[in-house]
Amino acid sequence: MRSTKAFYIFTFLIRVGMGSVSSLYVLYLLDLGLSYSQVLTINIAYFVLIIFFELPTGMLADGRGRGYSIIAGAVFTSLSGIAYFMATGMWGALVAEGLCAIGVAFFSGALTAWIADAPDRKISLQHVYANRTIAEGAGTIIGTLIGVYLASLADRSFGFLALAGGYALATLFAWLFMRGNEPEHSIGEFEALRNAVDYLRSSASMRWALGVQMASGIFGAYNLFWTPLLITKFSQVELGWIWIIMYVSIVISGWYVRHQSKDQDGARNHLTIRTLRSLLLVAISMGLVWTVNNGIVWVVLLTFHEIGRGMFAPYLDTYVNERVPSAFRATYGSLQSFLGLFGMVIAEGAVYLVYQWVDSDASTIPWLWLGASIALAGAVALLCQFRPKA
């Protein structure tokens, strides 16, 4: 099987799994009796654990093989779904979140590096990553339908069994089709880390990309709170359909980025501007929620938010992977994610402090998003001022 086809199918399978809980996750944690602050605590712990495991897993991917790293990521994430299904409170949720964090750390850097270095890849990286975004959107839509259906038949915990099943299928697929379909790597793990650090220190372009990655951590203010906000206007089943509508926009984003990739020179020269524009769209759409109290308008604004995020990932991944040498590409991806996650931890830490002073009430969420959008717009302005020319 061609590497690009395997990459898309694997992406589709893991997004079916993750989509099964996308519209249920925070609501399920609230069902377990957690407050908004405790939800934030669990997610901060999640990102701290990813930070802890990022570099070792990236180094293993470059030293031992990216295919095996991808398989390990799918296994741990599948186990996290089972653990969440069995969770009964804060500590059970923490264990499940920890397993998911390890899985994500194994994926980080390894998955994008695997396809970037695939010997049989014939199309541009921007085209590949745009197609990945389309596969993510399609998988999330199907996964959401599965998760909402299971929740309506039983309860929200059954969505996490679907997550476990989706990642179990992805594990089997990766074992069959993604092992060994990559160039041989003779570089050692610690040599890969030294090279990645030296490359980041010597490259202004990579330091700019790291700044962009850290700014995207502000997305965390949205990730955890869109369901508690929209559930005040819509039922759980309607929430699932709304999430599907919003994720159709991800498919549109992927199509748009793929269309741009036909102009390969222009795409490379303007990736910095396109990346910043996508971030600005995220900021504006998130901030405007504060101006209205209408559920339908909120859905429209959050759809534009998702379009911006859908464009952001392939732009930044293309920018980075076109510049980083193959030998330590996975380690560098993990290094950037490692440092970039501090942006997410800072953002969610700030939100945690806010909820020490205000009640865990959905009416505070639009105000929270307004502050986050102002911070993100400020970061975009700063990054625009110092952006590389190419």
Lay out the secondary structure.
Elements: H1 3-22, H2 25-31, H3 36-64, H4 66-86, H5 90-107, H6 110-116, H7 125-153, H8 158-177, H9 189-202, H10 204-215, H11 220-223, H12 226-230, H13 236-260, H14 264-269, H15 271-288, H16 295-321, H17 329-357, H18 365-385
For CATH, the homologous superfamily is named as MFS general substrate transporter like domains
Largest sheet: none
Q: Might you state the CATH topology name? A: Growth Hormone, Chain: A
Please identify the top-level CATH class. Answer: Mainly Alpha
Arithmetic mean pLDDT: 89
The CATH architecture category equals: Up-down Bundle
Keywords:
390 residues; mainly alpha; Growth Hormone, Chain: A; globular; transmembrane; Major facilitator superfamily; MFS_DHA3_Transporter; membrane
Describe the structure in your own words.
The protein is an all-alpha fold and 390 residues long. It has one domain (3-386): Growth Hormone, Chain: A, CATH 1.20.1250. The chain has 18 helices and no strands.
Please sum up the structure shown.
This protein is mainly alpha-helical and 390 residues long.
